[in-house]
Amino acid sequence: MTRKNGRKGLLADCGQRMRAMEIDPSATIDPLVLAAREHGLPAHEVEMIARRVAGRSCGDCTACCVVKGVAELGKPTQTACRHLCEAGCGIYALRPGSCRDYACLWRQGWVEGDERRRPDNLGVLFDYEHFARIPGSIRLVVWEIVPGAAESQKVRFIVGKLLETHKQIKAVAYCAAGKAAHHDFAIDRQTYPGTDAPPTPPIVSFDAIRQVITYEFRNAG
């Protein structure tokens, strides 16, 4: 009896030690996968997300800290966040929910390719948002980080690939580096596209082949 109790006590002690040494399994799971679980997505969708984001991380990229607006911080688009420092985000542990939940399309795995297509290396950040003018559709947003990068053949190829793969994309907005962007402009199809540029950006056109509305955020001429 004594020997049995002693063995049970030894096993219990070992169990406690093992539990104390265990690493929190959530620490090794991608934050996007954790977020998918927390939002109650079905298991097969969580698994699909896990496959898409495998091997992808923000690394040294802080492009979203510049181009994206953050309502909680009063930060406008195309302006470096005041909390951005050499080490990254100076308030990372206390960053707002919109920052915590954000991931660009490369990070999400929608933009194919290795780190050469990560925003800081490609020169643009790919994003998307709901397109209210066509219910159930989305608008692809190409945020330019390096001036002129959005005009490169590489970026145009990626845009074409995304349009081909995701039929729900019905508009594309190109946001020039350093230019504050507001996408929700009225579309005057009678006037634009036309020979004269509109007095204020964006230049709105319609891609008849791909059936998408295109917003060009750049200086005319």
List the topology elements.
Blueprint lengths: L1 H20 L9 H8 L4 H11 L10 H4 L16 E2 L2 E2 L7 H4 L4 H4 L10 H4 L1 E8 L5 E8 L8 H13 L3 E7 L27 E5 L4 E6 L4
Parallel strand pairs: 4-5, 5-7
Antiparallel strand pairs: 1-2, 3-4, 6-7
Give structural notes.
With 221 residues, the chain is an alpha/beta fold. It is built from eight helices and seven strands, in the order H-H-H-H-E-E-H-H-H-E-E-H-E-E-E. It has a five-stranded mixed β-sheet. Helix 2 runs antiparallel to helix 3. The longest helix is centred in the first third of the chain and has 20 residues. The termini are far apart.
Strand share of the residues? 15-25%
- How many strands appear in the DSSP assignment? 7
Helix fraction bin: 25-40%
Shape: globular
Mean residue pLDDT? 76
Number of helices: 8
Strand order of the largest sheet: 3-4-5-7-6
* Biggest sheet record: 5 strands, mixed
- Provide the gyration radius in Å: 23 Å
How far apart are the termini? 92 Å
Low-confidence stretches: 1-26, 191-199
Q: Give the structural class.
A: alpha/beta
Please trace the helix and strand order, writing H or E for each element: HHHHEEHHHEEHEEE
In short, what is this structure?
Helix content is 31%, strand content 17%. With 221 residues, the chain is α/β, with parallel strands linked by helices. The strands form 2 sheets. A 5-stranded mixed beta sheet has the order 3-4-5-7-6.
